[in-house]
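Appendix B. Extra example for self-study. Work through it before the problem class; the solution is given directly after the inputs so you can check yourself.
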Amino acid sequence: MDKVLVFVEIKGDGPRKVSLELLCEAARFAQNGRFSVEAVCIGRLPDAARDKLLSYTEKLVHFTDPELAVYSPEGYARALAGYAREGGAKMVIAGATGIGRDFLPRVAVLLETGIASDVTGANWLNEPMTFVRPMFGGKVFAEVVFSTSPVILTVRPNSFAMGEAQEKGGEYIEKTAGISPDTIHTKVVRVEEASRDTVDLTEADLIVAGGRGLKAAENFNLIEELAGAIGATVGATRSVVDAKWREQADQIGKSGKTVSPKLYIGAGISGAIHHIMGMDTSKVVLAINRDPNAIIFNYANYGIVGDLFEVLPAMTQELKKRKEG
Amino acid sequence: MDILVLIKQVPDPEALVEIGSEGKDLNIEPKFAINLFDEYAIEEALKIREAHGGKVKAITLGSAKAIEALRTAIAMGADEAMLIEDEGFAAGDGYNTALVLSRALEKEMFDIVLCGRQAIDADRGEVPQMIAQFLGLPHVGVVVKLDIADGKTVAESAFEGAKEVIEVALPAVFTAQKGLNEPRVPLITGVMKAMKVQIPKLTVEDLGLTRDMAGPGGSKTKILQYLPPKKRPAVQFIEGEPAHAAAEAVRILTEVERVI
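Solution. C-alpha coordinates for the complete assembly:
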Protein backbone atom coordinates (compact mmCIF):
# COMPACT_ATOMS: atom_id res chain seq x y z
CA MET A 1 0.00 0.00 0.00
CA ASP A 2 1.16 3.51 -0.77
CA LYS A 3 1.77 5.53 2.32
CA VAL A 4 0.17 8.97 2.60
CA LEU A 5 1.27 11.41 5.30
CA VAL A 6 -1.08 14.18 6.38
CA PHE A 7 0.69 16.93 8.36
CA VAL A 8 -1.73 18.05 11.08
CA GLU A 9 -1.54 21.46 12.63
CA ILE A 10 -2.62 22.42 16.15
CA LYS A 11 -4.23 25.71 17.05
CA GLY A 12 -5.14 26.38 20.67
CA ASP A 13 -6.45 23.13 22.18
CA GLY A 14 -7.46 21.42 18.97
CA PRO A 15 -6.43 20.44 15.46
CA ARG A 16 -7.08 22.99 12.75
CA LYS A 17 -10.17 22.37 10.69
CA VAL A 18 -8.21 21.99 7.44
CA SER A 19 -6.18 19.17 9.04
CA LEU A 20 -9.38 17.25 9.80
CA GLU A 21 -10.72 17.97 6.30
CA LEU A 22 -7.57 16.43 4.83
CA LEU A 23 -7.73 13.36 7.10
CA CYS A 24 -11.37 12.86 6.04
CA GLU A 25 -10.56 13.28 2.35
CA ALA A 26 -7.57 10.92 2.66
CA ALA A 27 -9.77 8.31 4.40
CA ARG A 28 -12.23 8.60 1.49
CA PHE A 29 -9.68 8.09 -1.27
CA ALA A 30 -7.93 5.36 0.71
CA GLN A 31 -11.09 3.24 0.76
CA ASN A 32 -10.02 1.29 -2.32
CA GLY A 33 -7.19 -0.21 -0.28
CA ARG A 34 -4.39 1.34 -2.36
CA PHE A 35 -3.33 3.81 0.32
CA SER A 36 -2.57 3.80 4.02
CA VAL A 37 -2.91 7.15 5.76
CA GLU A 38 -0.95 8.48 8.74
CA ALA A 39 -1.40 11.80 10.51
CA VAL A 40 1.87 13.48 11.50
CA CYS A 41 1.99 16.11 14.25
CA ILE A 42 5.15 18.03 15.14
CA GLY A 43 5.66 19.81 18.44
CA ARG A 44 2.95 20.82 20.92
CA LEU A 45 -0.01 18.42 21.06
CA PRO A 46 -2.56 18.97 23.86
CA ASP A 47 -4.44 15.85 25.03
CA ALA A 48 -7.76 17.13 23.69
CA ALA A 49 -6.24 17.67 20.24
CA ARG A 50 -4.64 14.20 20.29
CA ASP A 51 -7.93 12.54 21.23
CA LYS A 52 -9.79 14.40 18.53
CA LEU A 53 -7.20 13.52 15.89
CA LEU A 54 -7.33 9.85 16.88
CA SER A 55 -11.04 9.79 16.05
CA TYR A 56 -10.17 10.91 12.49
CA THR A 57 -7.15 8.73 11.71
CA GLU A 58 -5.95 5.15 12.13
CA LYS A 59 -2.44 6.26 13.02
CA LEU A 60 -1.06 9.44 14.54
CA VAL A 61 2.71 9.94 14.67
CA HIS A 62 3.88 12.67 17.03
CA PHE A 63 7.38 14.16 16.94
CA THR A 64 8.30 15.28 20.44
CA ASP A 65 11.89 16.61 20.16
CA PRO A 66 12.29 19.67 22.40
CA GLU A 67 13.86 21.45 19.40
CA LEU A 68 10.52 21.08 17.61
CA ALA A 69 8.34 22.46 20.42
CA VAL A 70 8.11 25.79 18.59
CA TYR A 71 7.60 26.07 14.82
CA SER A 72 10.69 26.62 12.72
CA PRO A 73 10.74 26.02 8.96
CA GLU A 74 14.14 24.32 9.12
CA GLY A 75 13.22 21.99 11.98
CA TYR A 76 9.76 21.04 10.76
CA ALA A 77 10.98 20.45 7.19
CA ARG A 78 13.73 18.10 8.37
CA ALA A 79 11.40 16.16 10.65
CA LEU A 80 8.65 15.71 8.06
CA ALA A 81 11.00 15.00 5.14
CA GLY A 82 13.01 12.57 7.27
CA TYR A 83 9.90 10.62 8.24
CA ALA A 84 8.58 10.61 4.66
CA ARG A 85 11.91 9.24 3.42
CA GLU A 86 12.18 6.61 6.17
CA GLY A 87 8.68 5.23 5.49
CA GLY A 88 8.85 5.57 1.69
CA ALA A 89 5.80 7.85 1.65
CA LYS A 90 4.26 8.39 -1.78
CA MET A 91 2.39 11.55 -0.78
CA VAL A 92 2.78 14.29 1.83
CA ILE A 93 -0.21 16.61 2.29
CA ALA A 94 -0.64 19.70 4.47
CA GLY A 95 -3.15 22.51 4.71
CA ALA A 96 -2.27 25.62 2.69
CA THR A 97 -2.07 27.57 5.94
CA GLY A 98 0.59 30.11 6.83
CA ILE A 99 2.80 27.37 8.25
CA GLY A 100 1.98 24.76 5.60
CA ARG A 101 2.86 27.06 2.74
CA ASP A 102 5.96 28.21 4.63
CA PHE A 103 7.76 24.90 5.16
CA LEU A 104 6.39 22.33 2.68
CA PRO A 105 8.50 23.83 -0.18
CA ARG A 106 11.57 23.00 1.95
CA VAL A 107 10.29 19.43 2.36
CA ALA A 108 10.07 19.17 -1.45
CA VAL A 109 13.72 20.23 -1.86
CA LEU A 110 14.88 17.81 0.85
CA LEU A 111 13.08 14.99 -0.96
CA GLU A 112 14.16 16.23 -4.42
CA THR A 113 10.60 16.34 -5.66
CA GLY A 114 8.00 18.86 -6.81
CA ILE A 115 5.19 20.53 -4.94
CA ALA A 116 1.72 21.79 -5.85
CA SER A 117 0.74 24.70 -3.61
CA ASP A 118 -2.73 25.89 -2.62
CA VAL A 119 -4.49 22.97 -4.31
CA THR A 120 -8.30 23.30 -4.54
CA GLY A 121 -9.18 20.00 -6.23
CA ALA A 122 -7.70 16.55 -6.81
CA ASN A 123 -8.24 13.48 -8.97
CA TRP A 124 -6.76 10.98 -6.50
CA LEU A 125 -7.73 7.90 -8.46
CA ASN A 126 -6.41 9.04 -11.85
CA GLU A 127 -3.25 7.39 -13.08
CA PRO A 128 -1.20 9.53 -12.64
CA MET A 129 -3.00 11.63 -10.06
CA THR A 130 -3.73 15.21 -11.04
CA PHE A 131 -4.29 18.29 -8.92
CA VAL A 132 -6.03 21.56 -9.63
CA ARG A 133 -4.68 24.85 -8.32
CA PRO A 134 -5.49 28.51 -9.00
CA MET A 135 -3.14 30.89 -10.81
CA PHE A 136 -3.45 34.63 -11.49
CA GLY A 137 -5.52 35.03 -8.34
CA GLY A 138 -8.08 32.50 -9.58
CA LYS A 139 -8.54 33.91 -13.11
CA VAL A 140 -7.46 30.47 -14.34
CA PHE A 141 -6.75 27.08 -12.80
CA ALA A 142 -3.95 24.70 -13.72
CA GLU A 143 -4.21 20.92 -13.70
CA VAL A 144 -0.83 19.72 -12.44
CA VAL A 145 0.82 16.32 -12.66
CA PHE A 146 4.00 15.10 -10.92
CA SER A 147 6.87 13.32 -12.64
CA THR A 148 8.66 12.64 -9.35
CA SER A 149 7.75 10.99 -6.06
CA PRO A 150 6.62 11.69 -3.42
CA VAL A 151 3.82 14.06 -4.31
CA ILE A 152 3.88 17.11 -2.02
CA LEU A 153 0.73 19.21 -1.67
CA THR A 154 -0.62 22.10 0.31
CA VAL A 155 -4.41 22.19 0.13
CA ARG A 156 -6.59 25.26 0.54
CA PRO A 157 -8.92 25.13 3.57
CA ASN A 158 -12.59 24.37 2.77
CA SER A 159 -11.66 22.53 -0.44
CA PHE A 160 -12.76 19.13 0.87
CA ALA A 161 -15.75 18.20 3.00
CA MET A 162 -15.47 17.25 6.65
CA GLY A 163 -16.52 13.69 7.49
CA GLU A 164 -17.72 12.04 10.67
CA ALA A 165 -15.46 11.21 13.61
CA GLN A 166 -14.92 7.45 14.08
CA GLU A 167 -15.76 5.70 17.33
CA LYS A 168 -12.79 3.38 17.12
CA GLY A 169 -9.72 5.39 18.05
CA GLY A 170 -6.50 5.20 16.06
CA GLU A 171 -3.01 4.20 17.15
CA TYR A 172 -0.77 6.87 18.75
CA ILE A 173 3.01 6.73 18.32
CA GLU A 174 5.58 9.12 19.78
CA LYS A 175 8.84 9.60 17.93
CA THR A 176 11.86 11.83 17.88
CA ALA A 177 13.41 13.17 14.69
CA GLY A 178 16.86 13.68 16.21
CA ILE A 179 17.01 17.35 15.26
CA SER A 180 20.07 19.00 16.76
CA PRO A 181 19.64 22.59 17.96
CA ASP A 182 22.40 23.90 15.67
CA THR A 183 20.39 23.01 12.55
CA ILE A 184 17.81 25.65 13.45
CA HIS A 185 18.93 29.23 12.79
CA THR A 186 15.76 31.04 13.79
CA LYS A 187 14.47 31.71 17.28
CA VAL A 188 10.93 32.79 18.05
CA VAL A 189 11.24 35.66 20.50
CA ARG A 190 7.56 36.45 20.91
CA VAL A 191 4.18 35.47 19.48
CA GLU A 192 1.33 37.94 19.37
CA GLU A 193 -1.85 35.95 18.85
CA ALA A 194 -4.65 37.87 17.23
CA SER A 195 -6.93 39.10 20.00
CA ARG A 196 -10.11 37.64 18.59
CA ASP A 197 -12.16 34.56 19.20
CA THR A 198 -13.58 34.06 15.72
CA VAL A 199 -12.16 31.62 13.18
CA ASP A 200 -9.47 33.02 10.88
CA LEU A 201 -10.80 34.25 7.50
CA THR A 202 -8.88 31.61 5.57
CA GLU A 203 -10.69 28.79 7.37
CA ALA A 204 -14.04 30.47 8.05
CA ASP A 205 -17.26 28.82 6.83
CA LEU A 206 -19.16 32.10 7.06
CA ILE A 207 -17.85 35.57 6.23
CA VAL A 208 -19.48 39.01 6.26
CA ALA A 209 -17.30 41.57 4.50
CA GLY A 210 -17.62 45.32 4.10
CA GLY A 211 -16.21 47.88 1.68
CA ARG A 212 -16.13 51.62 1.07
CA GLY A 213 -19.93 51.72 1.04
CA LEU A 214 -19.83 51.55 4.85
CA LYS A 215 -18.65 55.19 4.69
CA ALA A 216 -16.81 55.20 8.06
CA ALA A 217 -14.90 52.87 10.38
CA GLU A 218 -17.57 52.98 13.08
CA ASN A 219 -20.24 51.76 10.66
CA PHE A 220 -18.50 48.39 10.59
CA ASN A 221 -20.57 47.64 13.69
CA LEU A 222 -23.39 46.80 11.23
CA ILE A 223 -21.11 44.18 9.66
CA GLU A 224 -20.01 42.93 13.08
CA GLU A 225 -23.58 42.59 14.33
CA LEU A 226 -24.66 40.53 11.33
CA ALA A 227 -21.48 38.43 11.61
CA GLY A 228 -22.17 37.97 15.34
CA ALA A 229 -25.69 36.75 14.65
CA ILE A 230 -24.47 33.86 12.47
CA GLY A 231 -21.02 33.26 14.00
CA ALA A 232 -19.22 34.62 10.94
CA THR A 233 -15.76 36.20 10.59
CA VAL A 234 -15.52 39.82 9.45
CA GLY A 235 -13.62 40.65 6.26
CA ALA A 236 -12.77 43.89 4.47
CA THR A 237 -11.61 45.25 1.12
CA ARG A 238 -8.22 46.78 0.40
CA SER A 239 -9.51 50.36 0.32
CA VAL A 240 -11.06 49.93 3.77
CA VAL A 241 -7.78 48.55 5.14
CA ASP A 242 -5.77 51.31 3.44
CA ALA A 243 -8.09 53.85 5.07
CA LYS A 244 -7.26 52.18 8.45
CA TRP A 245 -10.90 51.34 9.15
CA ARG A 246 -9.89 47.70 9.61
CA GLU A 247 -6.67 45.80 10.30
CA GLN A 248 -4.54 44.28 7.55
CA ALA A 249 -5.47 40.83 8.92
CA ASP A 250 -9.06 41.42 7.76
CA GLN A 251 -8.16 42.11 4.13
CA ILE A 252 -9.57 39.77 1.49
CA GLY A 253 -8.04 39.87 -1.99
CA LYS A 254 -4.86 39.79 -3.98
CA SER A 255 -2.62 41.47 -1.42
CA GLY A 256 -4.63 40.08 1.49
CA LYS A 257 -6.17 36.69 2.20
CA THR A 258 -7.83 34.17 -0.05
CA VAL A 259 -11.06 32.86 1.40
CA SER A 260 -13.28 29.96 0.47
CA PRO A 261 -16.30 30.00 2.82
CA LYS A 262 -19.67 28.29 2.40
CA LEU A 263 -21.29 31.71 2.62
CA TYR A 264 -19.81 35.09 1.76
CA ILE A 265 -21.93 38.20 2.34
CA GLY A 266 -20.44 41.39 0.87
CA ALA A 267 -21.93 44.78 1.64
CA GLY A 268 -20.89 48.10 0.11
CA ILE A 269 -18.26 46.35 -2.02
CA SER A 270 -17.98 47.38 -5.67
CA GLY A 271 -16.15 44.25 -6.76
CA ALA A 272 -12.66 45.38 -7.80
CA ILE A 273 -10.83 42.47 -9.42
CA HIS A 274 -8.27 42.48 -6.56
CA HIS A 275 -11.06 41.67 -4.13
CA ILE A 276 -12.85 39.15 -6.38
CA MET A 277 -9.59 37.18 -6.66
CA GLY A 278 -9.67 36.63 -2.92
CA MET A 279 -13.26 35.37 -2.65
CA ASP A 280 -14.34 33.83 -5.95
CA THR A 281 -14.10 30.25 -4.66
CA SER A 282 -16.76 31.00 -2.01
CA LYS A 283 -19.71 28.63 -2.43
CA VAL A 284 -22.70 30.95 -1.94
CA VAL A 285 -22.27 34.71 -2.40
CA LEU A 286 -24.80 37.35 -1.38
CA ALA A 287 -23.96 40.91 -2.42
CA ILE A 288 -25.63 44.05 -1.12
CA ASN A 289 -24.99 47.27 -3.01
CA ARG A 290 -26.91 50.42 -3.91
CA ASP A 291 -25.57 50.38 -7.46
CA PRO A 292 -27.37 47.77 -9.61
CA ASN A 293 -24.36 47.80 -11.95
CA ALA A 294 -21.78 47.03 -9.23
CA ILE A 295 -19.32 44.46 -10.58
CA ILE A 296 -19.68 42.28 -7.50
CA PHE A 297 -23.14 41.21 -8.72
CA ASN A 298 -21.38 39.37 -11.59
CA TYR A 299 -19.73 37.18 -8.96
CA ALA A 300 -22.75 36.70 -6.69
CA ASN A 301 -25.47 34.05 -6.48
CA TYR A 302 -27.87 36.47 -4.84
CA GLY A 303 -28.05 40.24 -4.92
CA ILE A 304 -29.92 42.92 -3.06
CA VAL A 305 -29.91 46.34 -4.71
CA GLY A 306 -30.46 48.62 -1.76
CA ASP A 307 -29.06 50.68 1.07
CA LEU A 308 -26.86 48.55 3.30
CA PHE A 309 -27.66 50.82 6.25
CA GLU A 310 -31.21 49.46 6.02
CA VAL A 311 -30.58 45.94 4.72
CA LEU A 312 -27.86 44.85 7.18
CA PRO A 313 -29.77 45.70 10.40
CA ALA A 314 -32.91 44.13 8.92
CA MET A 315 -31.03 40.89 8.23
CA THR A 316 -29.57 40.88 11.75
CA GLN A 317 -33.00 41.42 13.21
CA GLU A 318 -34.58 38.69 11.08
CA LEU A 319 -31.88 36.22 12.17
CA LYS A 320 -32.46 37.07 15.83
CA LYS A 321 -36.20 36.68 15.35
CA ARG A 322 -35.70 33.23 13.80
CA LYS A 323 -33.37 32.17 16.59
CA GLU A 324 -35.89 33.15 19.24
CA GLY A 325 -38.79 31.66 17.29
CA MET B 1 25.27 44.60 4.33
CA ASP B 2 25.22 43.05 0.87
CA ILE B 3 21.68 42.39 -0.19
CA LEU B 4 20.37 40.36 -3.09
CA VAL B 5 16.82 40.99 -4.21
CA LEU B 6 15.19 38.31 -6.33
CA ILE B 7 12.49 39.78 -8.50
CA LYS B 8 10.12 38.56 -11.19
CA GLN B 9 8.53 40.30 -14.12
CA VAL B 10 4.86 39.32 -14.21
CA PRO B 11 1.85 40.27 -16.32
CA ASP B 12 0.27 43.49 -15.08
CA PRO B 13 -2.40 42.70 -12.44
CA GLU B 14 -5.02 44.14 -14.79
CA ALA B 15 -3.83 42.18 -17.87
CA LEU B 16 -6.41 39.97 -19.54
CA VAL B 17 -5.66 36.27 -19.15
CA GLU B 18 -7.42 33.86 -21.48
CA ILE B 19 -7.12 30.16 -21.98
CA GLY B 20 -5.80 29.26 -25.42
CA SER B 21 -6.42 26.33 -27.73
CA GLU B 22 -7.81 23.29 -25.88
CA GLY B 23 -6.47 24.49 -22.58
CA LYS B 24 -2.84 23.91 -23.57
CA ASP B 25 -1.65 27.49 -23.17
CA LEU B 26 -2.57 30.93 -21.92
CA ASN B 27 -3.04 34.08 -23.97
CA ILE B 28 -1.92 36.94 -21.77
CA GLU B 29 -2.24 40.58 -22.70
CA PRO B 30 1.36 41.85 -23.14
CA LYS B 31 1.47 44.37 -20.29
CA PHE B 32 4.14 43.76 -17.70
CA ALA B 33 5.14 44.93 -14.24
CA ILE B 34 7.42 44.02 -11.37
CA ASN B 35 5.64 41.57 -9.10
CA LEU B 36 3.82 43.60 -6.44
CA PHE B 37 5.46 41.88 -3.47
CA ASP B 38 8.94 42.24 -5.02
CA GLU B 39 8.59 46.02 -4.82
CA TYR B 40 8.43 45.71 -1.03
CA ALA B 41 11.55 43.54 -1.18
CA ILE B 42 13.46 46.14 -3.25
CA GLU B 43 12.37 48.98 -0.96
CA GLU B 44 13.44 47.10 2.15
CA ALA B 45 16.83 46.32 0.61
CA LEU B 46 17.35 50.03 -0.15
CA LYS B 47 16.37 50.99 3.39
CA ILE B 48 18.80 48.48 4.89
CA ARG B 49 21.59 49.82 2.65
CA GLU B 50 20.76 53.39 3.65
CA ALA B 51 21.03 52.47 7.33
CA HIS B 52 23.98 50.07 7.24
CA GLY B 53 25.85 50.64 3.96
CA GLY B 54 26.67 47.87 1.49
CA LYS B 55 25.15 47.21 -1.88
CA VAL B 56 21.90 46.03 -3.40
CA LYS B 57 21.83 43.71 -6.38
CA ALA B 58 18.64 42.71 -8.17
CA ILE B 59 18.52 39.34 -9.92
CA THR B 60 15.85 37.83 -12.11
CA LEU B 61 15.29 34.68 -14.11
CA GLY B 62 13.27 35.39 -17.20
CA SER B 63 13.11 36.10 -20.90
CA ALA B 64 15.11 38.94 -22.52
CA LYS B 65 12.15 41.22 -21.80
CA ALA B 66 12.54 40.73 -18.04
CA ILE B 67 15.49 43.15 -18.17
CA GLU B 68 12.82 45.88 -17.87
CA ALA B 69 12.05 44.74 -14.32
CA LEU B 70 15.76 44.97 -13.47
CA ARG B 71 15.89 48.50 -14.91
CA THR B 72 13.02 49.47 -12.65
CA ALA B 73 14.96 48.09 -9.67
CA ILE B 74 18.02 50.15 -10.70
CA ALA B 75 15.78 53.22 -11.15
CA MET B 76 14.50 52.74 -7.59
CA GLY B 77 18.10 52.68 -6.36
CA ALA B 78 19.60 49.20 -6.70
CA ASP B 79 23.36 49.29 -7.39
CA GLU B 80 23.59 46.34 -9.72
CA ALA B 81 21.44 43.88 -11.60
CA MET B 82 21.79 40.53 -13.32
CA LEU B 83 19.55 38.67 -15.75
CA ILE B 84 19.57 34.90 -16.00
CA GLU B 85 18.08 34.57 -19.43
CA ASP B 86 16.21 31.33 -20.08
CA GLU B 87 12.60 31.11 -21.17
CA GLY B 88 12.38 27.38 -20.55
CA PHE B 89 13.43 27.60 -16.90
CA ALA B 90 11.45 30.80 -16.41
CA ALA B 91 8.29 28.98 -17.48
CA GLY B 92 9.13 25.92 -15.38
CA ASP B 93 8.02 24.79 -11.95
CA GLY B 94 9.03 26.20 -8.56
CA TYR B 95 11.72 23.58 -8.02
CA ASN B 96 13.59 24.41 -11.22
CA THR B 97 13.28 28.17 -10.66
CA ALA B 98 14.70 27.75 -7.16
CA LEU B 99 17.46 25.47 -8.49
CA VAL B 100 18.63 28.06 -11.05
CA LEU B 101 18.47 30.96 -8.60
CA SER B 102 20.25 29.07 -5.83
CA ARG B 103 23.06 28.17 -8.26
CA ALA B 104 23.35 31.86 -9.12
CA LEU B 105 23.40 32.80 -5.42
CA GLU B 106 26.23 30.36 -4.74
CA LYS B 107 28.46 32.62 -6.86
CA GLU B 108 27.50 35.77 -4.92
CA MET B 109 28.57 37.26 -1.60
CA PHE B 110 25.60 38.33 0.50
CA ASP B 111 24.20 38.80 3.99
CA ILE B 112 20.55 39.04 3.10
CA VAL B 113 18.29 37.71 0.35
CA LEU B 114 14.96 39.49 -0.06
CA CYS B 115 12.08 38.21 -2.21
CA GLY B 116 8.37 38.92 -2.54
CA ARG B 117 6.22 36.46 -0.63
CA GLN B 118 4.62 35.17 -3.84
CA ALA B 119 4.51 36.00 -7.54
CA ILE B 120 1.09 37.17 -8.62
CA ASP B 121 1.08 35.11 -11.84
CA ALA B 122 1.77 31.53 -10.77
CA ASP B 123 0.73 32.25 -7.14
CA ARG B 124 2.99 29.47 -5.87
CA GLY B 125 4.83 31.16 -3.01
CA GLU B 126 7.40 28.34 -3.04
CA VAL B 127 10.64 29.61 -4.53
CA PRO B 128 12.21 31.66 -1.67
CA GLN B 129 11.81 28.83 0.84
CA MET B 130 13.18 26.33 -1.69
CA ILE B 131 16.21 28.55 -2.37
CA ALA B 132 16.84 28.75 1.38
CA GLN B 133 16.73 24.96 1.59
CA PHE B 134 19.00 24.48 -1.43
CA LEU B 135 21.56 26.79 0.18
CA GLY B 136 21.09 25.46 3.71
CA LEU B 137 20.00 28.89 4.96
CA PRO B 138 17.21 29.90 7.33
CA HIS B 139 14.27 31.89 6.03
CA VAL B 140 11.55 34.01 7.57
CA GLY B 141 8.34 34.17 5.55
CA VAL B 142 5.64 36.84 5.14
CA VAL B 143 7.72 39.55 6.81
CA VAL B 144 6.03 42.84 7.79
CA LYS B 145 8.93 44.30 9.79
CA LEU B 146 12.69 43.83 9.63
CA ASP B 147 15.09 45.31 12.19
CA ILE B 148 18.85 45.05 12.06
CA ALA B 149 20.64 46.48 15.07
CA ASP B 150 23.54 45.57 17.39
CA GLY B 151 24.43 42.55 15.29
CA LYS B 152 20.95 41.10 15.67
CA THR B 153 18.37 40.62 12.95
CA VAL B 154 14.77 40.49 14.10
CA ALA B 155 11.89 39.93 11.68
CA GLU B 156 8.19 40.11 12.30
CA SER B 157 6.24 37.49 10.42
CA ALA B 158 2.48 37.86 9.88
CA PHE B 159 1.06 34.37 9.61
CA GLU B 160 -2.69 34.66 9.29
CA GLY B 161 -3.93 36.27 12.51
CA ALA B 162 -0.81 35.88 14.64
CA LYS B 163 2.43 37.85 14.52
CA GLU B 164 5.68 36.10 15.31
CA VAL B 165 8.81 38.01 16.24
CA ILE B 166 11.78 35.96 15.07
CA GLU B 167 15.50 36.39 15.61
CA VAL B 168 17.54 34.94 12.78
CA ALA B 169 21.20 34.34 12.05
CA LEU B 170 22.50 35.87 8.80
CA PRO B 171 22.84 35.06 5.97
CA ALA B 172 19.12 34.46 5.63
CA VAL B 173 16.23 34.68 3.18
CA PHE B 174 13.21 36.91 3.85
CA THR B 175 9.92 37.09 1.96
CA ALA B 176 8.23 40.48 1.89
CA GLN B 177 4.55 40.98 2.64
CA LYS B 178 2.38 44.04 2.13
CA GLY B 179 2.81 46.33 5.14
CA LEU B 180 6.61 45.98 5.29
CA ASN B 181 7.11 49.46 3.79
CA GLU B 182 5.90 51.88 1.13
CA PRO B 183 7.91 51.30 -2.09
CA ARG B 184 9.43 54.51 -3.42
CA VAL B 185 8.64 55.91 -6.86
CA PRO B 186 11.83 56.13 -8.96
CA LEU B 187 13.26 59.62 -9.45
CA ILE B 188 13.88 60.82 -12.98
CA THR B 189 17.65 60.70 -12.38
CA GLY B 190 17.28 57.06 -11.38
CA VAL B 191 15.30 56.30 -14.52
CA MET B 192 18.02 57.98 -16.66
CA LYS B 193 20.71 55.91 -14.96
CA ALA B 194 18.71 52.73 -15.38
CA MET B 195 18.31 53.30 -19.11
CA LYS B 196 22.05 53.55 -19.63
CA VAL B 197 23.33 50.85 -17.29
CA GLN B 198 24.76 47.66 -18.74
CA ILE B 199 23.07 44.65 -17.18
CA PRO B 200 25.09 41.43 -17.34
CA LYS B 201 23.37 38.29 -18.56
CA LEU B 202 23.98 34.70 -17.57
CA THR B 203 22.75 31.52 -19.17
CA VAL B 204 21.80 28.39 -17.28
CA GLU B 205 24.89 26.73 -18.76
CA ASP B 206 26.98 29.35 -16.94
CA LEU B 207 25.44 27.93 -13.77
CA GLY B 208 26.30 24.33 -14.59
CA LEU B 209 22.76 23.40 -15.66
CA THR B 210 21.47 22.20 -19.01
CA ARG B 211 18.41 23.35 -20.88
CA ASP B 212 16.85 19.90 -21.11
CA MET B 213 16.41 20.00 -17.32
CA ALA B 214 13.71 22.60 -17.83
CA GLY B 215 11.59 20.81 -20.41
CA PRO B 216 8.77 18.38 -19.75
CA GLY B 217 11.37 15.66 -19.19
CA GLY B 218 13.23 17.62 -16.55
CA SER B 219 10.75 19.39 -14.32
CA LYS B 220 9.25 17.77 -11.25
CA THR B 221 5.73 18.95 -11.97
CA LYS B 222 4.08 20.07 -15.17
CA ILE B 223 0.81 21.66 -16.15
CA LEU B 224 -1.38 19.28 -18.17
CA GLN B 225 -3.99 21.86 -19.01
CA TYR B 226 -5.51 25.18 -17.97
CA LEU B 227 -9.09 25.27 -16.77
CA PRO B 228 -11.51 28.17 -16.41
CA PRO B 229 -12.84 29.02 -12.95
CA LYS B 230 -16.18 27.44 -12.12
CA LYS B 231 -18.83 29.72 -13.49
CA ARG B 232 -21.40 30.93 -11.02
CA PRO B 233 -25.00 30.94 -12.31
CA ALA B 234 -26.32 34.42 -13.11
CA VAL B 235 -27.12 36.49 -10.06
CA GLN B 236 -30.65 36.23 -8.72
CA PHE B 237 -31.82 39.60 -7.41
CA ILE B 238 -33.95 39.63 -4.30
CA GLU B 239 -36.52 42.36 -4.88
CA GLY B 240 -38.63 44.46 -2.54
CA GLU B 241 -38.28 46.99 0.24
CA PRO B 242 -35.08 46.63 2.31
CA ALA B 243 -36.82 44.93 5.25
CA HIS B 244 -38.61 42.50 2.95
CA ALA B 245 -35.52 41.74 0.85
CA ALA B 246 -33.46 41.21 4.02
CA ALA B 247 -36.01 38.72 5.42
CA GLU B 248 -36.18 36.92 2.07
CA ALA B 249 -32.36 36.72 1.90
CA VAL B 250 -32.24 35.17 5.37
CA ARG B 251 -34.97 32.69 4.35
CA ILE B 252 -33.04 31.65 1.20
CA LEU B 253 -29.74 31.25 3.07
CA THR B 254 -31.30 29.16 5.84
CA GLU B 255 -33.96 27.16 3.99
CA VAL B 256 -32.79 26.89 0.37
CA GLU B 257 -28.98 27.06 0.55
CA ARG B 258 -28.87 25.79 4.15
CA VAL B 259 -25.57 27.57 4.82
CA ILE B 260 -26.61 29.22 8.09
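Self-check: The two ends of chain B are 54 Å apart (CA to CA). If your reasoning did not lead you there, revisit section 3.
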